[in-house]
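in:
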């Protein structure tokens, strides 16, 4: 199915990040997003593979799974509609630190880093706002991780 920029802007507007953007900012961002469908049990990305994109979950669910040994995987988190994942690979372009596996048929919006750079050239204010949201998002995750770590010690 082909999605218009308006369709993608509406989808993005329903995500946690999208709620922070104005209608015009969503319209600026939409052409740089790619809609992807994943069947249940399909990998969105795989631990240790190169990564340079992030996804926003529109429908369905994704488990982030860390391979901790040859015989054991650990589910780090289950994410549903409105959430996102893959931001570390998006930022640093290093191999993925975990895998993302769909738990049901899942629809996402993907933003590749090269497309984000194009967005920043065309709409620098929208790009800056996106980076500010990224910093806030990562700060919150780090605070949660620190809090969980303190309780485990």
């Amino acid at each position: 199915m082909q999605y218009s920029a308006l369709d993608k802007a509406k989808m993005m507007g329903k995500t946690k990040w999208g709620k922070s953007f104005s209608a015009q900012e969503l319209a600026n961002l939409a052409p740089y997003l790619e809609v992807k469908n994943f069947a249940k049990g399909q990998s969105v990305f795989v631990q240790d593979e190169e990564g340079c994109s992030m996804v926003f979950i529109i429908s369905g669910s994704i488990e982030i799974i860390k391979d901790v040994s040859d015989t054991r995987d650990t589910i780090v988190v289950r994410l549903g509609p409105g959430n996102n994942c893959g931001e570390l690979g998006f930022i640093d372009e290093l191999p993925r630190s975990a895998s993302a596996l769909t738990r049901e048929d899942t629809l996402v919006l993907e933003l590749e880093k090269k497309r984000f750079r194009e967005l920043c050239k065309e709409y620098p204010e929208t790009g800056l706002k996106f980076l500010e949201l990224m910093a806030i998002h990562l700060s919150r995750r780090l605070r949660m991780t620190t809090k969980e770590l303190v309780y485990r010690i």
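note: Helices lie at 5-13, 23-29, 87-92, 113-122, 124-152.
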